[in-house]
Amino acid sequence: MLKSIHIQNYRNLSDLEIKSLGAVNLFTGRNNTGKTTLLEAIAIFTSGASRKLILEILNDRGELFNNSDKNSFHRFNRSELNFNVLLSLFSRESFFVRPFLTMTDNYKTVTLSIESFYDTEDFDLDGNRIHKRVFVSENSEIESTVKNLKYAFVVSNIAKGVSQKQIFVLEDDLLEYNYRLETVNYPIEYIGTRNLDREINGILWDRITLTDKEQHVINALRIIEPKTERINFIENSMGDRSVVIKIAETPAVLPLKSMGDGINRILTIILALVNAENGYLLIDEFENGLHYSVQEQLWKIIFELSAKLNVQVFVTTHSEDSIRGFEQVLNDPSNKTEGKLIRLDNVNGEIQEVEYTASDLKIATDNDIEVR
What is the pLDDT of residues 98-146, one digit of tens each? Predict the structure, then answer.
């Protein structure tokens, strides 16, 4: 579990240090204070800079060019296209994230950068011709004299004293990538603002079918529909899968989508949560699709399953109702899970954190003190 995190040069977060994190963390703040950006940085860090996740983040923000858009590819060659796509990640063409943990065996660093290089040839001791790749990003004098420079997206991971580096040449298409070969250190589920009903929900359901985790999903859906008995995913004639629900005392099986955004949002959140065991769950704009009356109950389930399944949770919100529900559960005498509310403020262009403990948050909500 992350105890703290330090982020430099990612989008609008030039230098943000969050000194203390809990098991369940709620981020709030005004627009353009970097709530979603912080969530993305944590996701990239905890995944060890998963290339698949980075592409999903870029796609969700509309920063990926459509692979079928011939006009886009006409304006740029492949290297220039990929360079411009990735450049949006950086505030100064570099990205650095480091958690400050007291135990040295948990120390980890993830660095993302775009670096220039050139290809050359040399000879080994036996006189055999060998290919060499020379990086010149940190030597402007060499860079200015080299023709035909190329660019690479470089991901560096240092954990427990072991360094790993991945180099992706930008002449290769970012979208032509076999994600099956990619390994992620921990289970990570990232729910964006538009993910009321994620396409991968059927896959997540298949992973927990016939396990105790099925009941966690049913219990959560009962927040909206108390008579929920069972759910399942069925395939239509087009090969798409959609979820159906069986309600007690009703013979018909109903499409879950017909029951509104709220119950579909809850399904998405809980499916992600139970699939993130021993890992991380990230939710952008918790309140999307949820009526204020159900949010406290959902928070209660999230706190309980976070402890039961060892999942660290990171959530953003604009909603006073979400904050109030979070505070009610956090300060419930039966709750044993540590939670934090962290507000992000933009102070003269620099993003800073303000932490609220459980007692601070109770005082604020009891006295209608604005913390958003």
Answer: 766 443 345 688 888 888 888 888 777 777 888 888 888 656 566 666 6
Q: What is the DSSP string of 30-98?
A: STTSSHHHHHHHHHHHHTTS-HHHHHHHHHHTT-SPPTT-HHHHHHS-HHHHHHHHHHTTBSSSEEEEE
| Own/partner long-range contacts of 126-135 (Cβ < 8 Å, ≥24 apart) | 133/167
Element (H, E) at 306: helix 292-309
Task: Give DSSP secondary structure letters for 89-152.
Answer: TBSSSEEEEE---SSGGG-EEEEEEEEEEEEEEEE-TT--EEEEEEE-TT-HHHHHH-SS-EEE
In this predicted structure, what is the pLDDT of residue 103? 38
How far apart CA 302 and CA 25 sit, in angstroms, is: 11
Please tell me the distance from the alpha carbon of residue 21 to that of residue 312, in angstroms, as a whole number: 9
Q: Are 12 and 91 in contact (CB under 8 A)?
A: yes
- DSSP β-bridge partners for residue 312: 280
Interatomic CA distance for residues 189 and 196, integer angstroms: 14
Residue 268, helix vs strand vs coil: helix
At 169, is the secondary structure helix, strand, or coil? strand
Residues in Cβ contact with 173 at an 8 Å cutoff, skipping those fewer than 6 apart: 67, 78, 82
Give the Cα separation of 320 and 322 in Å (integer).
Answer: 5
How far is the C-alpha of 118 from the C-alpha of 133, rounded, in Å?
6
pTM: 0.88
